């Protein structure tokens, strides 16, 4: 039995939906995390007899360690295959024989079931997560509106991470190319593609954005949740976070600059980013105004947060990434860089859509009146 068959037979997607609706999750992809896990594991009480043949799910999505004897023979075989594939652990022999969670957690996003880095929802002292997925990912999917993509569209998903955006686009697209350069995304994105039976549609490529943008292919849709965080250049930062360029926006600049060549007639590009800004605007807006002389540009400002909170969050991450440095020195340098050198006062979570069409700029900014 394949994992795909097991998930279908056990009704995983609806069990997950049920947990999601009972936990009211809307803005993060994680219904089950270190804080909610206890309550989720307690679903045993209302599932009672329904668990037989479904217990392995609890290891995959709620990080439960189970004695192998709790599993059916089919689940045990599947667990052995998943351990072989590096997706969970089986351990010991005889009395201590257990099936335990590994580095990956199974979640559902929309119609897709996928493995994501377990260190996001279950933080670990020994390692930061290496594959990103977060609220900005869901925001991009919200605007992507995959079911309304033209049938047969050709989609390029740059910086694919878990592959979730390419997977969603594949609901309508005939061809999706998903690219990344880091090892962990390039391990899990093909696993997720195959788990959702999209092998015929999605090609996962190890390719840097700069190389993809130089190639001769054209696309109906280009999607990207790029690394966009501005970080002091001398500090180490996660590859999924550090945006190239001083303000973190250079990857978006490179994409904008290539659009006229890589967008097919009628094509569009959809990006999401936290962009630094002053009290009134994200800094990148002036460049988008320029792009709006040739393209139809839409900017949806979803969130505007004071820079202080962003500095605190970044200081925490950068302190973990630079363990040889004093955490308070890392925090001071991060503050000096963001609030001093870059004069940032706020960070703006923006979805940017750039499409061929009548040139012009639309900015939806619910903070404008504030
Ligand atoms: C913010 S994450 C987005 C992941 C995923 N698209 C999502 O929205 O959940 C950025 C991703 O870009 C990848 N990346 C960083 N630099 C890259 C480059 N030069 N070319 C291609 N991918 C890159 C990282 O490995 C990471 O997976």
Description:
The chain contains 15 helices and 13 strands. With 370 residues, it is an alpha/beta fold. Helix 14 crosses helix 15. The mean pLDDT is 91. The protein binds S-adenosylmethionine (SAM). The site of S-adenosylmethionine (SAM) has 20 residues, from helix 9 and strand 7.
Distance between the termini: 57 Å
Order of helices and strands: HHHHHEHEEEEHHEHEHEHEHEHEHHEE
The assigned structural class equals alpha/beta
CATH class of the largest domain: Alpha Beta
Give the gist of this structure:
The protein has 370 residues and is of the alpha/beta class. It contains 15 helices and 13 strands.
List keywords for this structure.
alpha/beta; Rossmann fold; eight-stranded mixed beta sheet; three-stranded antiparallel beta sheet; 15 helices; binds S-adenosylmethionine
Helix-strand blueprint:
Elements (H helix, E strand, L loop, with lengths): L2 H8 L1 H12 L13 H5 L1 H5 L7 H8 L3 E2 L5 H12 L3 E4 L6 E4 L2 E6 L2 E6 H4 L13 H10 L9 E5 L5 H6 L5 E6 L2 H13 L6 E5 L2 H6 L4 E6 L25 H13 E15 L7 H7 L4 E11 H15 L5 H15 L4 E10 L4 E6 L5
Parallel strand pairs: 6-7, 6-9, 7-8, 9-10, 11-13
Antiparallel strand pairs: 1-3, 2-3, 4-5, 10-12, 11-12
Helix pairs in contact: 14-15
């Amino acid at each position: 039995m394949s994992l795909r068959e097991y998930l279908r037979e056990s009704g995983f997607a609806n069990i997950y939906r049920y947990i999601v609706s009972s936990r009211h999750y809307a803005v993060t992809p994680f219904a089950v995390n270190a804080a909610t896990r206890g309550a989720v594991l307690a679903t045993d009480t209302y599932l009672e007899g329904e668990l037989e043949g479904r217990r392995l799910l609890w290891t995959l999505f709620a990080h439960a360690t189970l004695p192998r004897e709790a599993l059916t023979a089919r689940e045990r075989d599947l667990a052995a295959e998943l351990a072989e594939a590096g997706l969970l652990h089986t351990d010991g022999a005889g009395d201590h024989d257990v099936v335990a969670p590994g580095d990956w957690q199974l979640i559902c996003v929309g119609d897709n079931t996928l493995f994501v880095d377990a260190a996001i929802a279950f933080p670990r002292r020994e390692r930061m997560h290496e594959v990103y997925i977060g609220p900005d990912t869901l925001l991009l999917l919200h605007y992507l509106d995959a079911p309304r993509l033209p049938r047969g569209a050709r989609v390029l998903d740059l910086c694919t991470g878990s592959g979730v955006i390419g997977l969603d686009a594949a609901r309508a697209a005939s061809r999706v190319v998903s690219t990344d350069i880091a090892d962990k995304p390039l391990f899990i994105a093909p696993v997720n593609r195959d788990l959702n039976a999209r092998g015929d549609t999605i090609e996962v490529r190890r390719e840097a954005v700069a190389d993809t943008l130089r190639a001769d292919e054209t696309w109906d849709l280009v999607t990207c949740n790029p690394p966009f965080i501005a970080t002091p250049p001398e500090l180490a930062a996660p590859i999924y976070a550090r945006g190239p360029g001083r303000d973190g926006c250079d990857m978006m600049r490179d994409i904008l600059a290539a659009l006229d060549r890589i967008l097919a007639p009628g094509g569009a590009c959809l990006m999401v980013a936290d962009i630094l800004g002053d009290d009134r605007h994200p800094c990148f807006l002036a460049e988008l105004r320029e792009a709006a002389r040739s393209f139809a540009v839409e900017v949806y400002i979803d969130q505007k947060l004071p820079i202080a909170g962003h500095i605190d969050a970044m200081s925490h991450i950068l302190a973990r990434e630079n363990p040889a440095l004093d955490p308070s020195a890392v925090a001071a340098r991060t503050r000096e860089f963001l609030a001093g050198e870059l004069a940032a006062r706020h960070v703006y979570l923006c979805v940017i859509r750039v499409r061929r069409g009548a040139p012009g700029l639309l900015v939806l900014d619910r903070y404008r009146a504030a």
